[in-house]
Design goal:
about 400 residues; alpha/beta; 10-stranded mixed sheet; 12 helices; about 35% helix; about 20% strand; disordered N terminus; binds S-adenosylmethionine; methyltransferase activity; Methyltransf_25; SAM binding motif-containing protein; SAM-dependent_MTases_sf
Length: about 400
Amino acid sequence: MASSYIHPSLTPLGPYSLDPRFALTSSTTTTTHISSDRGASGSAEASSSSVSSSSDYVANPFTKINNRSYFRDPENPYPLPCDLPEIHRQSLRTMTLMRVFGAPSCAPQLEGKSPKRVLELACGSGLWSSACHDYLARRGQKDTTFIGLDIISLAPNLRKKGVNWQFVRHDLRKPSLPFPSEHFDFVFIKDASLCQSATAQQIDLLSEPLRVLKHGGVLEVWDSDYVFRALLPNPTPPPKLAEKDQDQAYTTATYTISSATPFAAAQNKYLLDYNSWVEKAFEKHKLSAMPCATIGLSFTAEADAFQRVGSRRIAIPLGAEVRWEQTKKQRKLTADQLSLRQMALLTIIQMIEGMEPILKEASGKSQDEWDRWWAAMTVDLLQKNGLANGECLEVGAWWGQKG
Ligand SMILES: C[S@@+](CC[C@H](N)C(=O)[O-])C[C@H]1O[C@@H](n2cnc3c(N)ncnc32)[C@H](O)[C@@H]1O
């Protein structure tokens, strides 16, 4: 990354800054940049060219805790940091999900069709938009415009990579999206469940994305659960699983989840500790610890708005081979399959690290006690193969074509 990056969206450009209804109130007064020469934690910095008050969370959005940057607005429930290590973690998670799903989109409606205008909500680094652009370009579809929306400008200038890209700064807690109705061919949302309270999501997760989507357009949501369970031995694939999806599961040594998939509570002591703390902390901050259930319900609740819907849920065992896989005398995991499990585990360990402020509070531990717990947890998970009982990352993709 360049030594100091200023996102082009912060200068007036594009249709959304010209139309007063969709004006970016902060974009012309605030400069937000992430620089690579920022010290150990690589935190996102925000500075304002206008005088900002201490309660101006748009111009001055971050606070530092333990050398990491977090949103300062006490009304914002988002519990993860906003800095370079967190962007890297999210990129790793995006790559993990694209590997298990086999593409940047699961919706079959997109195959052979070029969406003209794509919206990525809570886009973060914009990695997904970039990957989707490359995916479409490989199929000869090069004229797609990508609009990324986030509360903070984190993405590099994707235009330099040849992506027809614009960034819109917007808070998803506001009641409406800053776009006209029926504007986009494809709306994509990944790992955005922590942006809003669980109640707001239950009531209204899909209504605004559906409003801005054209008839016949596709809405797709990807997310991951924050509480971890253990997959029990011999999960059988869902009976109606498409051959292509079955092949993808086989290639990646992952397991497709159906309502019949057998799960038990995690057995690893450290994951059990984490599960109890994250549930307590999320309850306090009114966040959903198992968004995969909420998102599935939201698609069911909006069934009338869609012509067709679909979903895929996948369990990725964490770290290495599960004990019951070893005894099945099946083929050994390949290096690729093992690295996928390692990547999934790494994104979880780094997520626990990022959520330290709220988890430490929920645990009631002092800093010393937390540091000891943290050190023992990383040794157990990374060096002692403490997750051989099937503890897994549960991820999901849901999509629907607007009727
Ligand atoms: C877990 S990250 C996911 C980012 C990206 N979708 C990805 O998968 O890499 C969540 C994103 O939501 C953004 N965010 C948090 N609260 C938000 C809000 N109220 N409105 C809009 N974006 C928000 C964060 O800045 C962050 O980029």
